[in-house]
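Continuing the series of single-chain predictions for the mutant panel. This is the parent chain; the variants come on the following pages.
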Amino acid sequence: MANRLIDNDFDRIILGIDPGTNIMGYGVLGCSKKSFQLVSMGVITLGKYDSHALKLKKIFERCLGLIDSYHPDEMALEAPFFGKNVQSMLKLGRAQGVAMAAGLFRDIPIFEYAPKRIKQSITGNGNASKEQVAAILKSLLKFDEIPKNLDATDGMAAAVCHYFQKGKPETGKKSYGSWNAFLSDNPDRVK
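Parent structure:
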């Protein structure tokens, strides 16, 4: 999807993952002392694999590939949500666990955020739609067009949420619980 050159001035890089067994979204966020920017965003499609075990293997391999390509300092994942379909939740939990294992295999700290927390952090509304999250990210990160598959922006949203929660690196400044809180402290960031 969207790829930009990695800026050597980044203090840290956050890999955001939206786990899934058919489509896994990811976003790579570069963070410096005063700002952050999109480095890469996309999806990994797994629907062509018949076996659930093979899909999990591919998730592990592809996550390792992202880690080895972008060298993230931290990984932020969207936690599985509690739905009515127990089988779906079990599969999603396995996908998340395998993505976490890839990060842990490379000694990357893992952070997990509930879907509502991510939406709240990006849009100010925990019940926001995927389209609303994508539109805010498009404005915030200044990418040209919203991807067709919103799992990509969901992965990026996990990374941006983590940035807001953990604050700017090495500055001692507060963390942001929502997009509105960030905006009030940084009105120059969005035009």
